[in-house]
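Input C-alpha cells:
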C-alpha cells in the first residue's frame, strides 16, 4: 500500500519594505482611477473674523501621470529628511545606546525593575506610554526601544515590551494627567465651531482635564489585564536558538576569588548608581527651572511670544515640545556617563563613542523602512484620498437625523473610521468640528464633550493604520528582535498581535463615553457633558 505524501507548501513572506513599496504603487494607481471619476468632496471651515462657514473643495489628485512621478522623485529626499520619526528615533537612540553601553540601564533593571511584579511593570509602561501623548508622539521613539531593551535584560520577551509600549501610546493617545499638545491643537477648532451656535461660548484648555485623568488610569488598568491575560501568552517566551542548543559547561573556580569579584562589582555598581542619581537630580532641577517664567535666566524652554503659559509650553514654536526628545536623550547620556565613571565600566571617551556606534548598526533596516514609509505617506497625503474620505464621513454625519446618545456613538464611530485614513487629530477636527460641535450643541450636548469624542475616536484606531508615521518604529523594532529572519513581521502579522488590545480598548472607550454621558459626570472644572 503506497503512502500518500503530503506536500507542504512553504509560505512566502514579503518583507515590510516590499509591502510598503507595493502600497505606494497601489495608492498612485488608485489616485489615477479616482481622479478620472472626479472623486471629490466639500467641507466647511469657520471664518475667524466673520464667524461664517466657508466651503472648501478637495479633490483626489492624480499621481499616476507625469506630475505624480515628478513629485515622487523630486521630493524623495525632502520627504525622508522631514519624516518626523526619523529624527526623533535617531536622537533618542543616542542617549539609550550610551546608557546601555556603560551598563547603566542593565544595572538599573537588575537591581530595581527585575524585582518588580510583572503586572506592576506592565501597568507602569502602559501608564507612562498613555500620558506621553502630553507631548505629541515622542512616546513612540523613546519608549519602544527603551522598553524592548529593559524587557530583554529582564529575561522577558522584548516583543511583548514593544507591543505594550506601542499599544499604550497609540490606543491611549490624547489622554494624560495634565493638559498638553492635544488641547492646544483641538481647542481653537472647538471654540470656532461653538461660536456658530452661541457667540458667548468659552472653551478652556482645562475643560477636559477630569475626564482625561480618569481615562488614563482606566485605560492603563484594562490594558494591563489585556496584555498579561491575552497577549503575553500568545507571544510566548523569547529564546535564542543558540541558547537552546548551548550545552552547560562547568569549571572549578576559587570560591573566595569569585566572591571577592562579586563584592567589588556590587560596590562599583552602587557607586555608579549614586553618581547617576546626583546627575538625575541636577538635570531635573535645571529642566524644571527652564520651565518657570519670570526668574533670572529661567523660561529657556518656553515660547515667550505667547500670552498664556500653556501656549508657551505646548504651542507650535515651543522649545519644550520641540526639544523634549533631545532632552530625554541628553539625560540618558549624562546619567550613563556618570554611572560609567562611578562603576569604572568606561575608561575614556573613545569607549563611549565606540559602544554607541556599535548599537547604531542594528537600526539599518529601520532606516531603509523609514525611507520607504516616508514616500508612502507623502504620496497618500498628496493624493488627498484620506481627506476626501474624511469629508464624506463628516458630511454623512451631518445628514443623519440623530440626537442624544445615538449622536454621540455615531460621531465616535465615524471619527474612529476616519482615523484609518487621516491620522492627524488636528486635521480631522478641522473637518469634523464645524459639523459635530453645532449638532451636539443643538442636541444639548456641550462642545467640550464633543472634543472628548474627537480624542476618543482618534485614539481608538490610531494603532491599526500603517498611515500612522510612527507605525514604522513599531514594525521596525519587531523585526530587529525577531529571531526568525526568514519570517519577518509583516503589516498583517504586526496588526494581528495587537488586535485583541484594539478591540477591547475600543469597547472600553465606548463604555466609558456612554457611562460618563449617562451619569452626567463633570469632564472638567464646572464643565459637564450636557449644556
Amino acid at each position: 500500500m503506497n503512502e500518500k505524501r503530503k506536500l507542504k507548501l512553504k509560505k512566502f513572506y514579503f518583507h515590510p519594505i516590499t509591502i510598503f513599496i507595493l502600497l505606494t504603487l497601489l495608492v498612485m494607481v488608485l489616485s489615477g482611477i479616482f481622479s478620472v471619476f472626479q472623486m471629490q468632496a466639500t467641507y466647511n471651515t469657520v471664518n475667524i473674523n466673520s464667524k461664517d462657514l466657508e466651503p472648501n473643495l478637495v479633490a483626489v489628485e492624480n499621481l499616476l501621470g507625469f506630475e505624480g512621478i515628478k513629485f515622487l522623485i523630486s521630493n524623495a529626499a525632502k520627504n525622508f529628511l522631514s519624516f518626523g520619526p526619523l529624527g526623533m528615533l535617531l536622537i533618542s537612540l543616542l542617549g539609550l545606546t550610551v546608557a546601555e553601553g556603560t551598563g547603566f540601564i542593565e544595572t538599573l533593571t537588575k537591581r530595581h525593575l527585575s524585582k518588580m511584579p510583572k503586572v506592576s511593570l506592565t501597568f507602569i509602561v502602559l501608564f507612562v506610554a498613555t500620558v506621553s501623548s502630553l507631548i505629541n508622539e515622542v512616546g513612540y521613539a523613546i519608549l519602544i526601544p527603551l522598553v524592548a531593551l529593559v524587557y530583554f535584560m529582564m529575561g522577558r520577551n522584548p516583543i511583548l515590551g514593544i507591543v505594550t509600549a506601542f499599544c499604550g501610546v497609540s490606543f491611549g493617545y490624547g489622554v494624560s494627567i495634565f493638559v498638553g499638545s492635544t488641547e492646544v491643537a483641538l481647542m481653537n477648532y472647538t471654540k470656532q465651531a461653538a461660536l456658530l451656535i452661541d457667540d458667548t461660548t468659552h472653551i478652556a484648555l482645562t475643560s477636559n482635564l477630569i475626564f482625561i485623568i480618569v481615562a488614563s488610569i482606566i485605560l492603563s488598568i484594562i490594558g494591563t489585564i489585556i496584555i498579561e491575560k491575552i497577549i503575553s501568552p500568545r507571544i510566548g517566551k523569547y529564546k535564542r536558538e543558540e541558547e537552546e542548543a548551548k550545552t552547560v559547561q562547568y569549571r572549578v573556580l576559587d570560591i573566595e576569588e569569585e566572591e571577592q569579584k562579586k563584592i567589588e562589582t556590587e560596590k562599583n555598581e552602587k557607586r555608579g548608581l549614586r553618581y547617576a542619581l546626583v546627575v538625575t537630580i541636577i538635570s531635573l532641577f535645571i529642566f524644571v527651572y527652564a520651565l518657570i517664567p519670570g526668574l533670572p535666566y529661567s523660561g529657556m524652554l518656553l515660547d515667550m511670544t505667547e500670552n498664556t503659559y500653556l501656549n508657551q509650553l505646548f504651542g507650535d514654536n515651543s522649545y519644550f515640545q520641540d526639544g523634549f526628545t533631545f532632552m530625554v536623550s541628553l539625560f540618558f547620556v549624562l546619567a550613563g556617563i556618570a554611572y560609567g565613571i562611578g562603576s569604572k565600566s568606561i575608561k575614556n571617551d573613545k569607549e563611549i563613542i565606540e559602544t554607541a556606534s556599535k548599537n547604531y548598526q542594528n537600526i539599518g533596516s529601520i532606516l531603509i523602512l523609514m525611507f520607504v514609509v516616508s514616500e508612502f505617506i507623502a504620496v497618500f497625503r498628496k493624493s488627498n484620498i484620506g481627506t476626501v474620505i474624511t469629508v464624506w464621513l463628516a458630511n454623512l454625519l451631518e445628514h443623519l437625523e440623530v440626537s442624544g446618545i445615538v449622536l454621540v456613538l455615531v460621531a465616535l464611530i465615524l471619527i474612529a473610521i476616519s482615523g484609518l485614513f487621516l491620522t492627524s487629530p488636528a486635521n480631522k477636527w478641522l473637518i469634523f468640528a464645524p459639523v459635530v460641535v453645532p449638532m451636539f450643541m443643538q442636541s444639548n450636548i456641550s462642545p467640550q464633550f464633543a472634543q472628548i469624542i474627537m480624542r476618543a475616536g482618534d485614539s481608538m484606531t490610531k494603532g491599526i493604520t500603517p498611515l500612522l508615521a510612527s507605525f514604522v518604529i513599531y514594525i521596525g523594532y519587531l523585526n530587529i528582535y525577531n529571531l526568525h529572519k526568514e519570517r519577518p513581521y509583516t503589516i498583517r502579522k504586526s496588526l494581528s498581535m495587537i488586535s485583541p488590545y484594539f478591540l477591547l480598548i475600543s469597547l472600553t472607550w465606548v463604555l466609558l463615553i456612554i457611562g460618563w454621558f449617562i451619569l452626567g459626570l463633570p469632564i472638567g472644572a464646572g464643565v459637564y457633558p450636557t449644556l
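The first helix runs from residue 16 to 36. Residues 186 and 429 are 7 Å apart (CA to CA).
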